[in-house]
Amino acid sequence: MNTRLYGYMVEFAHPDPLVEACRKVRDEGFQKWDAHTPFPVHGMDSAMGIRGTRLPWLVLGGGLSGLGLGLLMIWWMNGIDYPFVISGKPLFALESAAPVTFELTVLLSALTVFFGMWGLNGMPKLYHPLFRSERFRRVTNDRFFIVVEATDPKFHVDRTPAFLESLEGCVAIEAIEDPVDEPETAGKVG
Question: What is the C-alpha separation between 105 and 117, in angstroms, rounded?
Fold first, then answer.
């Protein structure tokens, strides 16, 4: 089976050297890299230079859509489609629209959070080259990793692993290979 280099993975035994290593990787100018930890590590986002997410804006849009849809639905149903006067009450009132509007606002906000997180995180991801590494299996237990991808513009086959080995607290470094499916065109006549 043919493989291609996915990137290099460096392992750390403790979170403090990992955070400092993330700062150095960021300062070195790498763009396509990630850190993997068994639990949230304080200060990791700023060390990696991660900017804020767009998710709150998406949720606001979903909530406002639910609000508008709820008000429009109640107005259309009670005031236009099936006007029915009960005890002289108005055909449309905000008080009577509040429960449906509230529920639609919450529903569309929750659905936006759920599907927005999946979409922004590129999920579902059923396969990743890191899953093939025996060493990476400890990421859910007691190890910390930084992975620099080979598609990074600053990546170099010789200099990148040397840089990663120079990071303080480095326990091990591993080349991550990814199987490549070759199209079966040999021997076929077009």
Answer: 18
What does the block give as tokens for 83? 């006007």
2-50+125-180, which class in CATH? alpha beta
pTM value surpassing 0.85: no
The alpha carbon of 2 is separated from its chain's Cα centroid by a whole number of angstroms, namely: 29
Rounded CA separation 111/107 (Å): 6
Q: How confident is the model at residue 190 (pLDDT cuts 50, 70, 90)?
A: very low
Of the candidates 75, 97, 78, 76, the one whose C-alpha atom is nearest the C-alpha of residue 86 is 78
pLDDT at position 185: 53
Strand partners, 147: 9, 34
Q: Which two tokens stand for residue 94?
A: 């905000």
Domain extents in the chain: 2-50+125-180, 55-120
pLDDT > 60? residue 60: yes
